[in-house]
Amino acid sequence: MNISEEQLTRWAKAPSETEEGKCQNAVSRITEVVKDKFGADVSVFLQGSYRNRTNVRQDSDVDIVVLHEGYYFSDVDGLSESDKTAYRKNFVGSDYTFSQFKNDVHALLKDIFGANLVTKKNKCIRVDGNDYRVDADVVPCFVHKRFRSLDSVEAEGVELVSDAGIHVHSFPKQHYDNGVAKNSDTDKMYKSVARILKNVRNELVEKGTISIDNMPLF
Question: What is the pTM of this model?
């Protein structure tokens, strides 16, 4: 595939102001709806390519985390065996499960946006876009806490349970900070190159050169 320097320059750019506005509209509306329902119990923030400023026009949907601050999953793998035993002995589970929270968020979004535009998926809830906003993947999560000792948390992230029953945790805020630092260290080239690679991937998929499953966007 022959690629000109002019094409690389275009691919390195962020989406247009129009696409940016539609992303912002999706984020603002969903944040408003969720905060009206759950209030201070949840925090709502972005993750993924839009948050990291590596999104491209063809993939300009948004990933929105809805984090319930009142509940957490614990990672005690780093504790000693005696501390693990003590932790489990004193652990008290919650009456409000993660599946209930995801169902509540799903019901809320269906009520606001319409059942025909909202789909519950394995790890998220999809809200289809329109002329005013882009598609959005809403990701309900509980806090993920990695314990260093019984009274010390080494790191906090987010965790979800897929509909298939698989726990998935990540650290989106740390990931964002690392991306900002890397972009600064590379004289602002890191995110531009990420956009170029995504556009190359989309071009290869469109031409049938590769399967979309062979090169995930992340």
Answer: 0.82
State the average pLDDT over residues 90-97: 88
Smallest CA-to-CA distance from 199 within 21, 49, 59 is with 59
Within a domain: 211 = no
> Distance between CA 31 and CA 19 in Å, rounded?
18
Coil, strand, or helix at residue 3?
coil
Q: Other CB atoms closer than 10 Å to residue 61's CB: what's the count?
A: 22
55-78 pLDDT tens trace:
666 566 788 999 999 999 999 998
Range of the domain at 123: 15-171
Number of domains observed in the structure of the chain: 1
Q: How far apart are the first and last CA of the chain?
A: 22
Cα–Cα distance measured from residue 14 to residue 94, given in angstroms and rounded to the nearest whole number: 43
Give CA–CA dist 42/2, Å, rounded.
48
